Amino acid sequence: MIVPSGMVAAGSIVSALITPDGRDVIVVTWRDLTPQASTHTVIVQFAELRVATGKLVRLLYTRTERYDETPFTTLHDSLGVLSLGSQGRYALVQGVQFGWLDVGAPDLGRFTPLPAILAGQYVNFAAW
User: Fold this and answer.
1) Whole-number Å distance between alpha carbons of 69 and 75
2) What is the largest CA-CA distance in the chain?
3) Is residue 120 part of a domain?
4) Which residues, at least 6 apart from 122, have a Cβ–Cβ distance to it below 8 Å?
5) Percentage of the chain with pLDDT > 70?
6) Cβ atoms of 101 and 61 closer than 8 Å
7) What domain range includes position 54?
8) Could you give the number of structural domains in the chain?
9) Residue 122 lies in a domain
10) Are 51 and 26 spatial neighbours (Cβ–Cβ below 8 Å)?
11) How many CB atoms lie under 10 A from the CB of residue 63?
């Protein structure tokens, strides 16, 4: 598998999982638009890349948020594509919020927050 170094979609890849069919990889990227500021503006994106080439297949979801230093650090440490469903249609993800992301058809890119986690808290591990 070729995973591009540096930047993909919104920024640096921080987590990835190969889809069950082995053809693609679902990644989460992040980019800090204001790295020197005390309040950070962050873009978090989920994207699908082709395993064989590392090229972008499609952008699945994008979210931009502002964070003070402590929540910013916690967010960065917890971003992830945590688990893929056995059929590869849904991914449990930790982006700006914890939830599931439709990575297959028919609702490609639809994000649904899961209420198990309070706002401002993050999940590092989860499975279907």
Assistant:
1) 10
2) 43
3) no
4) 74, 75, 77, 78, 94, 98
5) 91
6) yes
7) 7-113
8) 1
9) no
10) no
11) 14
- Short-list 11, 68, 114, CA closest to 122: 114
Would you state the pLDDT for residue 90?
A: 94
- The tokens describing 103, both together, are 């990575």
CA 72 centroid distance within chain: 15
Cα atoms in the Cβ-side hemisphere of radius 13 Å centred on 111? 18
85 lies in some domain: yes
Residue 50, both tokens: 């082709």
Per-residue HEC secondary structure of 85-114 comes to CCCCCEEEEECCCEEEEECCCCCCCCEEEC
pLDDT single digits (tens) 17-54: 999 899 999 999 989 998 888 898 999 999 999 999 88
**HSE (side-chain half, CA atoms, 13 Å) at 104:** 11
